[in-house]
Known about the structure:
Methylamine Dehydrogenase, Chain H; about 15% helix
Amino acid sequence: MESWLEKILIVMKKLILNFQIILCLILAQSNFAQQKDSLRYEVMLNGKMLSDSLKNEPFINDIAVSPNKYITLVADKNFYMLGWGGLSTFGNKADTTINAFSYTTEGLLMAIKNDELCFMNELGNLDKLVKLPSSNMKIASGKEVMYLFEQNKSDSLYPLFAFAKGGKYKQLLVSPKPITAVVEMKDSIYLAIGSGLFSFSPKDGKLNLIAGFQKENVIKSMAVDLKNYILYIATKAGIYALKDNSLVFITSDFSGSILKFFNDGLIVFNPETYDILRIVNIGK
């Protein structure tokens, strides 16, 4: 039988262990609070200041940064750049609605309209590069290729393509659900499919589940800090950060926003309110 002393020692050990667990939780919450308090927001565009004519042309759910470091947006058939004077058009008006756009690593502006993949020429016009397998596809930039993916189809097949120089594209995989976002980090491609975050290795063709959110917490957008290898994820609940397979909740202030990482800050775009801001100190 255990002596009273042994029983007391066991109880004391349990109390110490519980105290340590509680202390760790308190410290973790404190560290998170300090991280959130250290975030600084820079307003880049106040949607309330836009003219009524711009508000009547809803912006698509895309945002990019030009080679000369201007934020680029699209509304209907027009490209816009955000500078010190606000939003201004650039390039010529397209002949039909622009569905998606992105810059290549060389700074070439690519765009999709209907079933055509185009580029902006020196005159500011969109020239057709190749006809795509379906209409209204999305595009994302990689280091050496552009990624083309499906979001809006009537069937249950949503392919991901890699488009290389020379006008050739290759099918990488087929998803049973719409692909909402694609980014590239290190040697992997990260895909948002519904409320799931997946990584895909082009070398071995393996698709792995990295994180799964609640079904209604659909992933809206993703952005990558290539310097620190941090993946930022925007869902209906807020913004998360993934680093070294550790997922951290950052803030619920900008749920469902469109993200772009640039110049050590996370750009957040709300297409509904037309607000654009930049979160700094987010990677610290």
